[in-house]
Write a structure and sequence with these properties.
Strand content: 15-25%
Number of strands: 25
Number of helices: 34
Mean pLDDT: 97
Bound molecules: ligand 26Q
Low-confidence stretches: none
Distance between the termini: 37 Å
Largest sheet: 10 strands, mixed
Oligomer: single chain
Length: 793
């Protein structure tokens, strides 16, 4: 049975057996559960046959390890990738229900902070689409990224209890549970000529796997995401019997704590013990699983690196390397050289940030106490690295900088560069920055190991599933099958000479702006104006991303309108989406500043011209509504700080024009669309470096610029009644991310954007050229490059 009838009967059957109801009278949540259940079954079967097919051909498989997989919702996307959307929606409608309301039941699987986690999720989609066998490994956090609440613009965090609705997609595989050991002591001995390692007095935790299946688009393949949940490995009856009840309970709840919550920091490592436990929990269980699977297929680990590739998504899962060494040395009797050789060929690593505060360093004391055997293995890597560097003629100072264990700390990135065959940047520009800054020494020592693969996005999610209006347009003016054959999207370039096509694009965009405006209001609850320019900055809140530069600009516009009611300023809607790490006070203050600017605008004489909407709880799902409505994509990080960015790709794909610095993947976006379709401003990375070297003083810029000075003064005197001198002083003092230096150029490029937006044909042409330039940023291209150049599969 196929099509609509299939869905009608399956959903009915599932609702009947689970709830004793008929679909016509069922709750939306029951229809959603039933749909997920049916799809999970289909996907499990498909995954099994896809695995069997690849295994029978002895194909190499990639294992992608990441502390984060920011999956978002699955129902709409799975249906889309399987080509089942129409039949499913018809079946739901036949029960008298609205499919949109069914989709809305699903919580986001928010198992990530931002770019790095979403990239991992996009990779699983891309790998299944291009037909490569792939498995992701992560943690089944009970609480994902917090839900953001804004109270008068002040962020508070609510727990993200996603499992009640999210578990519909999880398939428990308890038979593959693994024991993970922490603490204790290591005893070495020799027995019968063999070196033996005995681990004593450790605490153990049980890792139980739950799988999520990710189908490819128009493909027979399904990727598998395996998420580990921590459980106490049995209740400690011995402690309990000795009367140590509280101690027995404490051990059990300590175990569960490991998978309880995602760390909400991004681009910042705070070296916490629980985070270290989470990381080892992930790699120990995943490596055990990979070894088990490989032995079942081949009976030996000799050919592990030939049949598998393991990818480390930033340094967070680095301990996978010493963990596999431990197994090869202690459990399989390999010697160091052979074991290290297997690891070298097997593992590859991607770096996602050059900010020094994000580079992971662990305190040696804490590390040894929690993971005594892993520490000894890392120390041996360090000893060997130092020997090699000495042979290569590096000085003692240089060796200290490149060492793995130094100054009481373990540097995970250095271990990755030394122990894996490939260290990757996430855009071309990022690789240059890596080679010139954080990895400068190691790059000189091991230049052949460094490459870059530019990030990509599962464009199907933001275009085809989320934006049917634009998809129709793209099909009409490029090709019906562009989803699979995405290069064909560039044919859109041909339609920019056709004025009817330009107008049609304008209507599509307007429709999406109306949809957004219907669901979102400005900060004081007034409706948004869809005919105004939608100016969007949506991303994590971080000083390097410079949301405060955007804020300064809006204050300046307000100043200008107040000084001159006839100022040449067209209607604009500023839309922000951003979560701040809960402990990042300045970031929370910037959110509050932006919110207060919105309030002040709404009470000013500019209120009909300038409106500001701060989207609460920016997430994968809210981005799917936001991206299609954007006219301008704000990508304004200080050059040299944003590794790639992927929101920039989602926005260009949605026909927004990038207004940005030459940073991260913006550089490649500019190449793809041409300088006439990109609003570029600001210093280059080289200029930033030169200015830093010379000694940067923001006051030099502030004193020369009355507009900027007035904006900072206004912050001091209060915005919507609140004094923001603290933030103004940061800009006047260190201004670490050089907002003052880039301010004038930023204002002038925005002026230009207003002129361009006035001429609808010109603007629509630029926007379409952005859509046409987006195929380079499809994740299918990214994963193909990884398969060809890094994973050799
Ligand atoms: C580390 C240690 C302890 C706790 C948390 C962390 C941690 C967590 C998340 C450190 C960094 C992250 C996330 C980094 C991230 O998302 N980086 C972004 O990665 C994107 C995908 O490559 C890029 O596009 C962005 O430029 C980059 O900022």
């Amino acid at each position: 049975m196929q099509g609509v009838e299939f869905w009608k009967s399956k959903i009915s059957e599932s609702i009947r057996t689970a709830y004793g109801e008929i679909p016509e009278s069922a709750d939306y949540s029951h229809i959603y559960d039933a749909a997920a259940e049916v799809l999970k079954g289909l996907l499990a079967e498909k995954c099994a046959s896809s695995a069997a097919r690849h295994a029978s051909r002895g194909e190499k498989r990639v294992y992608y390890m990441s502390m984060e997989f920011l999956m978002g919702r699955s129902l709409r996307n799975n249906l889309h990738n399987l080509g089942m959307t129409e039949d499913f929606e018809a079946a739901v409608a036949s029960f008298g229900a609205d499919p949109e309301k069914v989709y809305a039941q699903e919580p986001d699987a928010g198992l990530g902070n931002g770019g790095l986690g979403r990239l991992a999720a996009c990779f699983l989609d891309g790998l299944a689409t291009i037909g490569k066998p792939a498995m992701g490994y992560s943690i089944c956090y009970e609480y994902g990224i917090f839900r953001q609440k804004l109270t008068e613009g002040w962020q508070t965090e609510k727990p993200d209890d996603w499992l009640p609705g999210g578990k519909a997609w999880l398939a428990e595989k308890r038979e593959h549970a693994v024991e993970v050991r922490f603490g204790g002591e290591i005893e070495e001995s020799w027995y019968d000529g063999y070196h033996q390692i005995l681990h004593k007095n450790y605490d153990s935790v049980l890792a139980v796997p739950f799988d999520i299946y990710v189908p490819g688009y128009d493909s027979d393949d399904v990727s598998r995401l395996r998420l580990w949940q921590a459980e106490a490995s049995g209740f400690d009856m011995e402690l309990f019997n000795r009367g140590l009840y509280a101690e027995a309970m404490r051990k059990s709840s300590m175990a569960k704590a490991i998978s309880s919550v995602l760390y909400p920091n991004d681009n910042h490592s705070d070296g916490k013990n629980l985070r270290l436990k989470q990381q080892y929990f992930l790699v120990c269980s995943s490596i055990a699983d990979i070894v088990r699977r490989h032995l079942a297929a081949y009976g030996t680990l000799e050919n592990l690196a030939e049949k598998a590739a393991i990818h480390i998504n930033d340094t967070h899962p680095t301990m996978a390397i010493p963990e596999l060494m431990r197994i090869l040395l202690d459990e399989c009797g390999y010697d160091w050289e052979k074991a290290a050789d297997i690891c070298f060929n097997l593992f590859s690593y991607t770096n996602h940030t050059v900010l020094p505060e994000a580079l992971e360093r662990w305190d040696v004391g804490m590390f040894r106490f929690l993971l005594p055997r892993i520490y000894v293995i890392i120390a041996e890597f360090d000893r060997r690295l130092r020997n090699i560097l000495r042979e290569k003629g590096f000085s003692d100072d240089e060796i200290k900088r490149m060492a793995i264990v130094e100054n009481g700390e373990i540097r995970m990135a250095n271990l990755c560069v030394f122990a894996t065959h490939s260290t990757n940047g996430v855009s071309k520009h990022h690789l240059t920055v890596m080679e010139n800054s954080v990895f400068a020494d190691l790059y000189r020592a091991f230049p052949d190991r460094f490459t870059s693969v530019t990030n990509g996005i599962a464009a199907r999610r933001w275009l085809c599933a989320a934006n049917p209006e634009l998809t129709g347009f793209v099909k009409k003016y490029s090709s019906e099958d562009f989803e699979k054959d995405y290069e064909k999207m560039s044919l859109l370039k041909n339609c920019v000479k056709d004025s009817a096509a330009l107008e049609e694009f304008g209507k599509v965009k307007l429709r999406r702006k109306e949809l957004f405006a219907a669901e979102n209001r400005d900060v004081m609850g007034n409706p948004l104006d869809p005919s105004s320019l939608f100016d969007v900055q949506a991303k994590r809140l971080h000083e390097y991303k410079r949301q405060h530069l955007n804020a300064l600009r809006i204050i300046s516009l307000l100043n200008e309108i107040e000084a001159n009611p006839n100022a040449d300023i067209d209607p604009r809607t500023f839309i922000f989406g951003a979560k701040a790490a809960p402990g990042y006070y300045v970031a929370k203050r910037i959110i509050r500043l932006i919110w207060c600017i919105g309030k002040e605008l709404s009470e000013s004489r500019a209120k009909d011209i300038l409106k500001l909407s701060f989207l609460e709880n920016y997430s994968v799902t809210t981005s799917e509504l936001l991206m299609p409505s954007a006219d301008i994509s704000e990508q304004i990080s200080l050059a040299g700080t944003e590794a790639s960015g992927t929101g920039n790709m989602k926005l260009m794909l949605s026909g927004a024009v990038t207004l940005g610095t030459l940073d991260g993947a913006n550089v490649e976006i500019l190449d793809a669309v041409g300088s006439e379709n990109f609003l570029r401003f600001g210093m280059t990375s080289d200029e930033v470096d030169a200015l830093r070297a010379k000694g940067y003083d923001p006051m030099e810029y502030i004193e020369k610029n009355d507009e900027l000075k007035a904006a900072l003064d206004r912050m001091r005197h209060g915005i919507a009644g609140e004094d923001f001198s603290d933030l103004a002083d940061l800009i006047k003092g260190k201004d670490f991310y050089m907002a003052a230096a880039d301010y004038a150029d930023y204002m002038s490029i925005h002026n230009k954007s207003q002129q361009l937006f006035r001429d609808k044909d010109t603007w629509n042409r630029m926007a379409i050229m952005n859509v046409a330039g987006s195929p380079t940023f499809f994740v299918d291209r990214t994963v193909k490059e990884y398969c060809d150049n890094i994973w050799n599969m």
